[in-house]
Amino acid sequence: xxxxxxxxxxxxxxxxxxxxxxxxRIVAGATDLMIELQRGVRPTETLxxxxxxxxxxxxxxxxxxxxxxxxxxHNDVISxxxxxxxxxxxxxxxxxxxxxxxAAATIAGNVVTASPANDTITALIAMDAELELIxxxxxxxxxLRDFYQGVRRTVLQSGEILREIRIPALxxxxxxxxxxxGLRRAQAISVVNIAVVLSGSEYDGLFNVTDARVAxxxxxxxxxxxxxxxxxxxxxxxxxxxxxxxxxxxxxxxNPIDDIRASxxxxxxxxxxxVTQGLQRIAANRQADGWDAQQVLLEVAHSPNxxxx
Length: 309
Hints:
It is a single chain. By secondary structure, the protein is an alpha+beta fold. It has helices at 11-20, 33-38, 74-78, 87-94, 99-104, 107-113, 119-126, 227-233, 240-252, 264-283, and strands at 4-6, 25-27, 46-49, 59-61, 66-69, 130-135, 138-143, 148-150, 153-154, 161-167, 174-181, 192-203, 206-217, 224-225. A hairpin with a 2-residue loop joins β12 and β13 (206-217). α8 packs antiparallel against α9 (240-252). The chain is globular, with a radius of gyration of 19 Å. The two termini are 33 Å apart.
């Protein structure tokens, strides 16, 4: 376990500490960190706790994007006034753990943990998320899909933190959703999860696709984009035949494994079913089914900084 614990009160102090302590681990919600340390994954003697940096806890929007700070929790996303504008991420956030976990766990922590079973990563990749990384040496930005190198492996450098996640808000001509299959109804690690974002127009009750993003989790070392399925969708009407065909194309893009939660064969069947079901819901404009304006949070109100630093 750790020997040294720091709780800086400014971002500058944080970055200086990380520059001086290259093997330090970041503490935010700690819901993944504590499990990793108990299992001996990426052990460290030094923890740097970000929770005093209130300016990093925000979910806000400008004309370009919805911005999610490093300390924004899953509950912050779920309860945000922008939840429907980032519906796939809000739906994925609601699937993480229990309300008590969602009150502590951060979106940024989910991203950095880099498990292919992490629900919010799939949604963020489908929404074409961008990351802002910062260290004592400066700031760099990258697309989330370029952040991962394998299971629990990222390009995050020593001394660097994920300061902000930026995602384009869903436009009026876009529809998106997140779906998950687990072994129980709640607090389940995904067997398969999918997120879809489509652009298009509706005519005579049918949705004509002009752009598509289809992401799938738990079927490869990282979250994957189904390029063949996306290309097939462009220019097509979302009818039953199209939805079914895209489900099969999505299966062809996967390379799942057998593990304690499911066999590879089961995961392939689940991918086909989830993608088909998701497209059918989007075609019927029912992507927000089951979403309530008032979410169960089980936490007291807080006053996060409304603006990014």
